[in-house]
Amino acid sequence: MISYKTRINRVLDYMEKNLGSDLSLDKLAGIACFSPYHFHRIFYSQTGERPIELLQRLRLEKAATLLAVRPDRKIIDIAMDCGFSNAASFSRAFRQKFGETPTRWRSANVINSNLSTHSSNIGKEIKPWTPYIEYRQGVQLWRMRNENRERKVEVKEIGSRKLAYIRYTGPYKGDGNLFQRLWTELYTCAGARDVVEEDSEYLAIYHDNPDLTDDGKLRVTLGISTGSDFEGDEVLGVLPFEGGKTAMAHFRLNSREYQEAWDWVYCQWLPISGYVPDDRPAYELFPKDDEKGEDGRYAVIICVPVRAAS
Predict the structure, then answer these.
(1) What is the pLDDT of residues 167-211, one digit of tens each?
(2) 287-290 CB contacts, 8 Å cutoff, 24+ apart
(3) What is the phi/psi pair of residue 72, to 5°?
């Protein structure tokens, strides 16, 4: 039996992938297999937001993120891709949510490589990272060096896969105990359903921009890739996860260092890479055989779906 939570998660996933489409209440109710009358109430009970309100929030937050990471794109094109029919309605809704116009927002928040020469909180200049690039069997390999530090970023094609997953909504930043509990829950549920395989991958998918979304509405999906015929039940959902060209930045991190690592990918590497993020969600990939180091750090690969900058 598919739980209400899993049905609503399917609706949220569909919303995310189709923000530019006309998503009627009847359409969303059909995805959840509820009547429109009951869907509206069940959706609110599961998310704390009405369907149209949540859809509008996702569209505006996606547009705000694109304005920052895609300075090459026209504002009207971003608005249309996020489901707004014209510039006036987009600007009005954007200003109501963020308190300023899309143009002003972009000017204040656009990501660029100048961040690499800003001063740190203790007044020391941060030296830029020097890239060394090579190609190995269809993989573009970046070695980024800064004094005695080196970081590696691979850009390669990743295949699509099916994930067995659980999803959490709420505050999560820096909360190592929360993620330990969630991973334990996922391992337990997946193991009991025989969906874990020798080559399974372990992913954490972040659906929202933590700089824009209220902490209580942040969503993270923890998933295990599987080739089994498991179709989901009241505890464990199933999610098709699209592949494509992906930048994979390798780190060893403790729970307090994740934000800094994500910032490095977006503010140090991405602006000089010749790539821009595409519309697929970014995620973290955890090597399954890795063990906690003596310094308390684990291996983490931050994965950002990309395409060539135009």
Answers:
(1) 999 999 888 899 999 999 999 999 999 999 988 999 999 999 888
(2) 288/200, 288/201, 288/202
(3) -75, -15
Spell out the domains of the chain, with CATH numbers in brackets. 4-109 (1.10.10.60), 157-308 (3.20.80.10)
- What is the DSSP-derived secondary structure letter of residue 143? E
Counted residue by residue, the chain has a size of 310
Closest CA to 237 of 181, 186, 173, 279: 186
Q: How confident is the model over 44-68, as pLDDT tens digits?
A: 999 999 999 999 999 999 999 999 8
Query: 219 near 12, Cβ under 8 Å?
Result: yes
Q: Is the pLDDT higher at 279 or at 107?
A: 107
Cβ proximity of 237 and 226 under 8 Å: no
Contact status, residue 253 vs residue 298, Cβ threshold 8 Å: yes
Query: What is the predicted pLDDT for the residue at 141?
Result: 94
Model's pTM, two decimal places? 0.84
Contact criterion met (CB below 8 Å) for 303 and 159:
no
Angle 127-132-136 (CA atoms, 0-180°, nearest 5)?
150
The whole-angstrom separation of Cα 204 and Cα 13 is 15
Please give the structure tokens belonging to residue 178.
């929360």
**Average pLDDT of span 105-122:** 54
**What whole-number distance in Å separates Cα of residue 106 and Cα of residue 137?**
38
What does the pLDDT read at residue 126?
Answer: 53
CB contact at 8 A, 11 and 23: no
Residues 65/209, Cβ–Cβ less than 8 Å: yes
Task: Report the distance separating Cα 232 and Cα 225, nearest Å.
Answer: 13
Contacts with 275 (C-beta within 8 Å, 6 or more apart), sequence order: 155, 247, 306, 307, 308, 309
Report pLDDT digits (tens) over 214-236.
Answer: 999 999 999 999 999 998 888 89
Residue 110, Cα to own-chain centre: how many angstroms?
18
